[in-house]
UniProtKB/TrEMBL annotation, chain A:
Gene behind this protein: LOC110221992
Domain named Globin: residues: 2-142
Biological role: The zeta chain is an alpha-type chain of mammalian embryonic hemoglobin.
Name of the protein described by the UniProt record: Hemoglobin subunit zeta
Organism: Phascolarctos cinereus (Koala)
Keyword Mitochondrion: no
UniProtKB/TrEMBL annotation, chain B:
Keyword Heme recorded: yes
Gene source species: Phascolarctos cinereus
Superkingdom of this protein's organism: Eukaryota
Lineage, uppermost ranks: Eukaryota, Metazoa, Chordata, Craniata, Vertebrata
UniProt-listed Gene3D superfamilies: Globins (1.10.490.10)
Family, similarity comment: Belongs to the globin family.
Any GO molecular function: peroxidase activity
Protein name as catalogued: Hemoglobin subunit beta-like
Gene from which this protein is expressed: LOC110222032
PROSITE patterns noted in UniProt: GLOBIN
One GO cellular component term: hemoglobin complex
Annotated ranges, domain Globin: 3-147
BP terms from Gene Ontology: hydrogen peroxide catabolic process
Keywords: Heme, Iron, Metal-binding, Oxygen transport, Transport
Amino acid sequence: MSLTKSDKTIIASIWSKIATQADCIGTEALERLFTSYPQTKTYFPHFDLHHGSAQLHAHGAKVVSAIGDAVKNIDNIKSALAKLSELHAYILRVDPVNFKLLSHCLLVTVAAHFPADFTAEAQAAWDKFLTIVSSVLTEKYR
Amino acid sequence: MVNWTAEEKQIISAIWAKINIEEVGAAALTRLLVVYPWTQRYFSNFGNLSSPTAIEGNPRVKTHGKKVLTSFGEAVKNLDNVKATFDKLSQLHSDKLHVDPQNFKLLGDNLIIVLAATLGKDFTSEAQAAWQKLVGVVAAALSRNYH
C-alpha cells in the first residue's frame, strides 16, 4: 500500500487544519482512546489521565507533532520516524493492536472538528497514511 | 447478556433520536465503500461504484445505507436483547450474503466517524465509548450464527 499524489495532497490539506489546533486534537484523540478502550491506560500508570491533565495535554501534543513530522516527510516516513520506531520497539513495546485503536480515535477527532473537510476521500487518504505510520512504528518489533 | 449502564443507554438513545437515519446510513456505507474498496465486492449489482463521487451519488448506496441503519435501530430499541434481535439477520449474512464478519467492525467504526462528523462536540468521549460498545455488540450478534 502506498500513497498516491492525490492522497498526499489531501493529507497535507487536512494536516494544515489539524495544525491550527494540534495540541487539542492530540489530547482529545488520547482521551477518546482511554475512554473507549480502557485497556490502553495500562501503558500510562505514571500519568494523571483525567480530563484537563497537563500530562495528557503534553502527550497529546507530542503524538500529533510526530504525525506532523510524518506529513512533512511524507516521502520518507521511515527516516523521519526512525527514532520513534526504535523507541516503540525496544522500550515502549506497545502492542501493535493499539496503533489501530489510536488511529481510529484520531480520525474520529478530526471528523468531529472538521466535518466539512473530512470527506470520504480524506478519510481514505488519512486511513492509509496512519496505517503506514503505524507500520513504521512497529517495523523493528521483531 | 450485555451489561449496559443507565448512562450508556441514555447516551445511545439520545444520539439515535438526533440523527437522520437516511443521511447517516448512506454516509456510513459510502465511507465503507470508499475507504475500504474491497468491500465493493458485495455490491457488484449496485451499478456505478467507480469513484468516490460515483459512490456518493449512487441511489442504491443511499437506499441500502438507510436499510442497514434502520436495522441497526432494532438494536437501539432492544439493547437488552440484541442477540435474539439479529438472529435471522445473522443467518442471512452467513448463509446467503457470505459477508466476512470483519466488515461488521469496519462498518461500525465508519458509523462512529459519521456520528462524529454529524454531531461534532456533542459526540463526546463518553458518547463514543457507548457507541463503540454498541457496534461491537451488534457485530458479535451478526457473527453469532456463522458456521
